[in-house]
Amino acid sequence: MIIEYTGAQKLKGTLLFFEPIRDIRYGEKVVIRSEGKTLNGKVAALSQSVMLIEILGEPYGLNIDNLRVQFTGNIFELGVSDKMLGRVMDAFGEPTDDKGEIRHDKLLPIGGSAYNPVQRAYPNDFIQTGISAIDGLNVLVKGQKLPIFSVAGASTNDLAAQLVRQITPSGKNGAVVFAGIGIKYEDAQYLIQSIRSGGNFERTAIFLNLADEPSINALLLVRSALTFAEYLAFEKGYDVIAVLYDMTNYCDALREVSSRREEIPSRKGYPGYMYSDLASIYERAGILKESAGSLTQIPILTMPDGDITHPIPDLTGYITEGQIVLERELQQKGIYPPINVLPSLSRLMNHGASDQHRRWSAEIYAAYAKAKKAEMLAAIIGEEEMGETEQRYLAFGKAFERQFITQRNEENRTLEQTLAIGWKLLALLPPTALTRLKPQDIAEHFQ
Amino acid sequence: MAHIISILGPIVRAELDGERVCIQDVAYVGELGLTGEVIERDQKSALIQVYEETEGLKLGEAVTFTAQMLSALLGPGLLGSIYDGIGRPLKLAGTRISRGLKLDPLDRDKLWSFTPFAKAGQKLEGGEYIGAVSAQDAFEYRLMVPPDKNGRVSFVAGQGEYRLDDTLIEFEDGERLTMVQRWPVRIARPFKERILSKKPMITGQRIIDFLFPISEGGSASIPGGFGTGKTILQQTLAKWSDADIIVYIGCGERGNEMTEVLQEFPQLADPKSGKKLIERTVLIANTSDMPVSAREASIYIGLTIAEYFRDMGYTVALMADSTSRWAEAMRELSGRMNELPAEEGFPSYLASRIASVYERAGAVRTLGGDTGAVTMIGAISPPGGDFSEPVTRHTQRFTSVFWALDKELANARFYPSINHLLSHSAYAISVKSWWEAGYPEWSELRLWVIEMLQRDEKLQRIVKLLGSEALPEDQKLTLFISDLIKEYFLQQNAFDAVDMYASPQKQICMAKALKALHQWWKRCFEEKGVPAGQLKDQPIVGELLTSRLGVPNDQTEWFDAWHKRMETRYETLLLTFGEIS
User: With contact defined as beta carbons under 8 Å apart, do B216 and B315 qualify?
Assistant: First the structure.
């Protein structure tokens, strides 16, 4: 028997003020019915005089005169099963494709809870992405969270799709969970098709929240997608890659919801708890000692106005284990993928790369940084006026961008190919400048 | 029975039923018994900051009060352990930390071998030693009378094996002492007086020990945007600092970073004692996905544990990564309590809280008459890497060393990415006597390095506009030697088995070699006008550069041989230069 309560006091935006009822849980899921319309909601504050319900959806058409609320007695949960692979779903895990209902194995709370760092296993396994700028200089490791900081106008979709197609975790049981957050239908369509063309769709689950849906759904969608990803990884033993695209939309939705709750805003109107909120998403990546699988996250965000100090990339960078930064200037030079390696970083690189690989990478980084300085100088005094060493760096920089960074959209380079290109480029430099290499590296690779 | 009357995020109000409740008492909230702390009282109710996720709580659920402040249990077994922000041992918790979990921080069944120092009939004051226990000859815990107790001893347990709760001392007034004591974390443990320590804390990091040293009992801050290497620097300091004890607080940071420490420290050996690093380390972890309210408490738990070891006469280094998360936790809670915000939403008491935390560092004479020190190093994560934000600014006011990390250096993979122009240390003068006792040339070499870097900075402005070719030859020499100072001396690879730790002696050898090299360059240029480029490109320079990674700390005689070769080389150059060309 379903019991429904009346007692709505006030409706303001997506907040419903309701008479408190005994035995309601903080955070409980509720169902709101009025004028033939049904919406989900969540208890957002409880006191003796009033209960605050946050409506998950657009409140138009609700009438507090005949509004009734059913309390489910449970906090938000997502039904999960491995039958969700190969399907397209919404924020509540309901299928939106035409393949019929999904039978669930169990219900899991979508909020997740903190992992005990003692029970985590440290990520150590190199993942090959086939992209030189990543495999060579910013190694991705299984269980890592490595975001892509994009800018408007960069070929983000192509890179995201290429990554998902090419990534090969060492385990055989790979799966991809794609969370489309507030993205345009066009982008979603392109990505789904591109991921499908990799022949891996039956190992892919798509959670989709389009740009015109209510903002609050974006907040739920990420958590639903990650709850499913965790289930696959830690209960079913899959090596899961979760792609969250676009986290900027998520943060804007968070700001909108926070402002409706009349919370005190922090930087640029985003709520003060955005760091903790983002952490509760990104920290769900990892490997656990007692489970077979792994969860690797690739969150993608668009830096507003290309500004890396904007709160969204800034807070993300403080939580994630590195970042891959895209740059419009490179894109305009015709370089794909337009990855600027200087601000890019993989914090776990030291665990996924050999010692020599690391020294090689440090040397390339130092050389490219000098090449960039030389480029600035060349813009002022002209190339001809520059010293011989500086000219050599200039040549290195150009060759690096054209031969190392640049690759075709379907080009899947092995790590050996990537390293070989790098050694070839380093040979352009005076041997005394190679201070980060060991004598045996030099002996091995240069004559 | 007190019960819940309102819930908003981590803030819960309970209506009281005659309970005696003081501010900052610990409360257990709801059926699960979530741990919380009283932050506000009125006639009928108490406001509680809950340290765990409150979702699922109901109105009317019971609240119990412990009549005790949040305290740390201090005793043998702390070393090698990892605790969460409110002091629960994480090694005993499950994969996910279940709510309301209550675990004993120390193992009460373990036997420790006790040697008494105190004798019957002796009068003991707070802080005086009663005896010591050791764990597998690893480390000696010196047991003391709790600071707030004293009395005449009527009973002392004999030498032997005891558990934590066994009575070791009985006073005439009936007071019994065991191996453990409790101390409220928000109150600094008392000491007799502050002393000025002249000994630097040696970190094995050249740019720190040489240019921006920290003394034992000092305080330092490491501000840096993301990706500048704060955590790696903190972990490096935790590994190689010559403190007796390390307390490492992961405050609102990544879970994997704590996992890394837990995995790595049991394998690395302390360069001083040869024991495993984990045996001198206590870890506190409030990872960024753990409840934010416990983040605020985690710093205080760490400080209390550090002070406990200080009171045993040890030097303790406390690393807090990152204090910005701690400040932000304060901001979030302040917002939920509807306090009036000051700068950037932080509460107006931000500066005084930062001051009160860093002031708990210091070298002291303990109540027991020994000397001990807590050296505190706090990382700061300024939003957007902007050092003018409140947490960085206030921390700079209350700490004496400022290691400013630089994004541009980090982008070029120049680590540690400490910017030598923005950083400063107030201890360079106080540690001088220690250095000069062992290495008389320290001050002179240090000043030479600083002078070169300052000259280089001026020249770099010209180079940026005109290129290095535009400089006269003698200024090129300054440019080249500064390049070497940066690439060879200041840069240090935290992952290279040799370079990760440079002993004071190796530091001196390296700096000396550079200075000698520079003198020869100047001489060759002044006497014969040898071009700077030719002086720099001598293979002997390349040989020196390989010694950074190639010459271990115990083979510094390599440098003597190098000096000889170098002198011969440039002497020959000086003789033959004009004749060949």
Answer: yes
Strand ranges across the sheet with B151-156: B123-124, B151-156, B169-171, B176-177
Q: Is A439 on the interface with B (CB under 8 A)?
A: yes
Q: Are residues B243 and B349 in the same domain?
A: yes
Q: What does the pLDDT average to over B347-372?
A: 95
* Structural domain of B29: 3-70
CATH of the domain at B382: 3.40.50.300
What does the pLDDT look like over B160-195, one tens digit per residue?
A: 999 999 999 999 999 999 999 999 999 999 999 999
| Last-in-domain residue among B179, B211, B236 | B179
- Whether residue B360 is predicted with pLDDT greater than 70 in this model: the reply is yes
Please report, rounded to a whole number, the percentage of residues in chain B having pLDDT higher than 70.
99
Mean pLDDT of chain B: 92
Does residue B226 sit in the same domain as residue B274? Answer: yes
What is the three-state SS of B456-481?
A: HHHHHHHHHHHCHHHCCHHHHHHHHH
Identify the sign of the CA torsion A96, A41, B34, A270: positive
Return d(Cα B246, Cα B248) in angstroms, integer: 6
Q: How many domains does chain B have?
A: 4
Q: How many CB atoms lie within 10 A of CB B31?
A: 12
Topology of domain A78-352, CATH: Rossmann fold (3.40.50)
Residue B574 maps to a domain: yes
Q: Which of residues 545-564 of B touch A (CB under 8 A)?
A: 545-546, 548-550
Give the pLDDT confidence score for residue A379 in this predicted structure: 87
CATH code of the domain containing B522: 1.10.1140.10
Mean pLDDT of B512-524: 96
Residues of B in contact with A143 (CB under 8 A): 256
A35: left (phi over 0), alpha (psi -120 to 50) or beta: left
Cis, bond preceding B416 (omega within 30 deg of 0): yes
pLDDT of residue A170: 59
pLDDT of B294:
86
Give residue B138's pLDDT band: very low, low, confident or very high (50, 70, 90): low
Mean pLDDT across the stretch B389-394? 95
Low-confidence residues in chain A, pLDDT < 50 = none
Write out residues 117-136 of A within 8 Å (CB-CB) of B: 117-123
pLDDT tens profile B35-46: 999 988 999 999
Whether residue B377 sits in one domain with residue B256:
yes
Q: Of B375, B402, B428, at which residue does a domain stop?
A: B428
In eight-state DSSP terms, residue A385 is: G
Burial level of A354, CB count in 10 A (0-12/13-18/19+)?
Answer: exposed
Q: Is B14 inside a domain boundary?
A: yes
Asked if B6 has any chain A CB less than 8 Å from its own CB, the reply is yes
- Specify whether B398 is located in the same domain as B458: no
Residues of B within 8 A of A436 (CB-CB) are 493
**What is the reported pLDDT for B581?**
47
* Domain shared by B222 and B119, yes or no: no
CA separation for the pair A64, A82 (Å, rounded): 40
What digits encode the pLDDT tens for the residues B424-458?
A: 999 999 999 999 999 999 999 999 999 999 999 99
Same domain, B120 and B33: no
Q: Do B163 and B126 share a structural domain? A: yes
Cβ separation of A387 and B252 shorter than 8 Å?
A: no
Residue range B390-419: mean pLDDT, rounded: 93
| β-strand pairing of B401-402 with B219-223 | parallel
| Residue B436 counted as domain residue | no
CATH class of A4-75: mainly beta
Domain extents in chain A? 4-75, 78-352, 356-445
Distance from CA of B364 to the nearest CA of A (A): 34
| B433 within a domain of the structure (yes/no) | no
Q: In this model, does residue B301 exceed pLDDT 50?
A: yes
A-B contacts (CB, under 8 Å): 220
> Does residue B580 surpass a pLDDT of 60?
no
**Residues B414, B462: one domain?**
no
